[in-house]
Amino acid sequence: MSRPSQRREMAETAVARRGISIALACRTFGLSETCYRYSPKLRPENEEIADLLVGLTTSRRTWGFGLCFLYLRNVRGHGWNHKRVYRIYRELELNLRIKPRKRLKRDKPEELTVPDVPNQVWSMDFMADRLEDGRAFRLLNVLDDFNREGLGIEVDFSLPAERVVRMLNRIIEWRGSPKAIRVDNGPEYISGTLMKWAEKRGIALQHIQPGKPQQNAYVERYNRTVRHEWLGQFLFETIQEVQDHATDWLWTYNNDRPNMAIGGITPAQKLKLAA
Questions:
Q1: For the whole model, what pTM was predicted?
Q2: Percent of the chain predicted with pLDDT > 70
Q3: Which GO BP terms sit in this record (predicted)?
Q4: 143/173 Cα distance (integer angstroms)
Q5: CA triplet 105, 107, 108: central angle to 5 degrees?
């Protein structure tokens, strides 16, 4: 038994190609003339949704439908149904093209505890990349585990322990001091300089086990977002270009980008709810 839409399509084909009357075509395919002549009326809002989706996917090339919809609902405050938005998203052919890859099944790591308040636990980790001329540089990312807020990104050719301490002091000046900082076992993190600084401040350094990056999963996931959304998208000529782009992106991440790990709102929104 064919659906009404299929019977309507067959009736339209018969009228167009065979030249028979609409009434005969409808009787032949068991379709009412009302159904045949029906023309859906598109709401003006659909054009607004389409314009917003095109603008979003143009300016945020790495965002899929999930982030776009959460941005429209939670950040911009639109109450459109997700099925309606998704239908328009598909009609515009805005789907991300993702190449499938073979994945290996692995045991699930033990979930990290989510802090109840800001500044309870921060996570910290390094990343590495290269400038257009091939020179290697590093990034230091600091994250508040409570609302996944990026607290800072430091960029330079070398980031020794003294530079790490200086960055943390700058963040503490406006954010306040954390109770603990989760780090790996890199030389910068196990140096006497950082350990003395943490002891003086009354901050516990929580070192993960060697070879267990899942124990620092929040900042590892954040690193992946950094790589996917801008670090792996552009070639930079100077360290200053990288730092400027990192600063601009960090504001967008904290204030404008919905985060699915915290319920589809932005880190700034979650921080405001906790105040």
A1: 0.74
A2: 92
A3: DNA integration
A4: 16
A5: 110
Sign of the C-alpha dihedral computed for residues 216, 222, 226 and 227 taken in this order: positive
Nearest to 225 by CA among 77, 125, 87, 119: 125
Task: Parse the chain into domains and list their residue ranges.
Answer: 4-37, 44-92, 121-273
8 Å CB contact between 267 and 259: yes
8 Å CB contact between 165 and 140: no
Instruction: Mention the CATH class of domain 121-273.
Output: alpha beta
Least confident segment among 38-52, 76-90, 179-193: 38-52
Helices 44-59, 82-91: inter-axial angle, 10-degree rounding: 70
Q: Which residues, 6 or more positions from 53, have their beta carbon under 8 angstroms from its beta carbon? A: 68, 85, 88, 89, 92, 94
Provide the CA 167 distance to its chain's centre, in angstroms. 25
* Pairing state between β 136-144 and 121-130: antiparallel
Distance CA 163, CA 151 (A): 16
Between helix 161-175 and helix 192-201 the angle, nearest 10°, is: 20
